[in-house]
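Retro notes
What went well: the complex prediction finally ran end to end.
Inputs used:
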Amino acid sequence: MLLLVLTIVLLALAAAVFRIGRGRALALAGGLPKNLSALPRYYGWYVVLWGFLPAVAVVALWLALQPTIIEALVIAGLPDELRSLSDAETGLIYNDIRNALAVGKLPDDARLADAAAHYVRLTGRAPLALSALSVALLLAGAGIGLRMVSPQLRARRMVEKIVRGLLLVSSTIAVFTTIGIVLSLLFEALRFFRLVPITEFLFGPEWSPQTAIRADQVGSSGAFGAAPVFAGTMLISFIAMAVAAPVGLLSAIYMSEYAAPKVRAVLKPLLEILAGIPTVVYGFFAALTVAPFVRETGGLLGLDVASESALAAGVVMGVMIIPFVSSLSDDAIAAVPNSLREGSYGLGATQSETIRSVILPAALPGIVGGLLLGVSRAIGETMIVVMAAGLAANLTANPFEAVTTVTVQIVTLLTGDQEFDSAKTLAAFALGLMLFLVTLVLNIIALYVVRRYREEYD
Amino acid sequence: MLQTQTSSLSYAHQTVEETPSKVSARGVNVFYGAKQALFDVDLDVPVNHVTALIGPSGCGKSTFLRCINRMNDVVEICRVEGDIRLDEGDIYDLDVVELRARVGMVFQKPNPFPKTIFDNVAYGPRIHGLASNRDEVEEIVFTSLEKAGLLKEVRDRLSEPGTSLSGGQQQRLCIARAIAVNPEVILMDEPCSALDPIATARIEELIDELRQIYTIVIVTHSMQQAARVSQRTAFLHLGELVEVGNTEDIFTNPRDERTQGYITGRFG
């Protein structure tokens, strides 16, 4: 509530400051905009940025630091015998105070009464202090900005520089997040590789991550060969792409080359609905509908099909990927210049000859890019395989058996109560790192292929 | 076997008046949706001559050109009425594939396929089954490139993509590609508008050589080009065929004042 009011007040002030800044620039120029080095409104923006940016930065910093600072102040006000305790214990005391106040009482321990009162005072004053400080900062900043305004000031350049800086900051946030994720994966994976040799992890044929916590536990061999897990991922991705690639591509060809506009207007959104279904829904569709169907059909044919089969999970995942493949292929086909179609028709080629010999080769880079993006989705997909593919790490290429995938193993390794320094949990990071590398390489290839294609036709 | 046709009895050296028609159009009306683009056009295209279609933008000259090989069929809202004959045969009685094999087309912007130079030229012969083995394909590709005046420049780079050529070379590649199907008529839709003057001069020379064998209809914006390459010129204006006659007559002694206005640069 306070934040909302504060924001409104700051914005209103900023608007006022904008008018003042613009007015001052105009006044200095004798009311003639042509005497200024930039349009009057840039002087307004210039002054606003001077006031607004520091105020916003301080509010953000304050909100982030407030709990820590209040805690430090309250603890500093504790009686000496309590203050000299270890950090963990003072932290507990501080929590006691807050918990007691939260239910409207004073702490049981009388020695804490002063501290509690101190806490109440501090938290009561903080919002007011914050508001006063930010408004003061805004006005002070705007004041400085106003003094800088002169007809010679290149206000547009300054404003554009600041805006460019803001854009740069926004774009680097994503980059730094990625770097952070990679580093956290990397360090935890390195810890894992200290416990398990990397060669054993990459090539070991057995995956059984249950390590013994006590020496007398049985059945906990702790084998960390990831080969079966990666084999499972590859098998399921292969099945998924075997479904998604032909269906997606053929439907893209139909929709972009053959379908009447009316048919296309209905079919395309319908197909894209597939992309909007949550994967968890696909997951129970696979586990409850497709898997039993596959097992029973297999049974009729005399095949031994596990109740959680790679086939069921792979097929459903393939259906999920169809819209990605078809929509990207459709874009690629639509981007083929019409002059190529006409050139081919002009030589007496039929429509199917034109599609096969001219349009598909021209669209191939875009189609390949779409397929590779589909593959990286298949590899990274989690929910469907968690629900439908099972947990048994079989090193097999038989689609009727239960297999497990990298993503499933990461989920099972990290859910539940775990110590975060055992080989078992660290293995999840190693798997995650491998998965990340594989999808990264695929995405790079896909982007490269797609970019080459763009260069050729734009 | 198809390579020899017509060359033995070429009308190239006879006057336009003595030459029989290769294509004759009678009462051609074209509609794009509700809008009429061509009004009752009658035009004869003499064998082994170059017929130029001139006129201001939007006058329907490209539309008429595209009627001859039924390229307007692919445009959904387009409707063509009237009688167009190729060698006395109604073009709507022919299979469109056969018609387009007999009436080739070269477009405004060079549009080589994303294939090698060789495969670009071999594309037509392959889809029409004109060659039964690799040697015959090669034979056709080489003669077509030769006729298009491109062989010397690309002999050593036949496996490079067609798009790697310069604009003028690409356009000659497209001409070679059209020739490879061994058509009787070649339609050219402003073939030089995307080219520089040197490449344009080469194409114009080529057009003059090609008319020994083929019948050519060319749409052009440049009246100088029409005067240089064609023997017969048709002037279209607002969807109507205003005047048609020997190129010389049209440019020196136009009968219609609209033609005169256009060729002297008063409008268009």
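What we learned: The interface with chain B takes residues 337, 339-350, 353, 357-358, 361-362, 456 of chain A (CB under 8 Å).
What to try next: split runs per interface for comparison.
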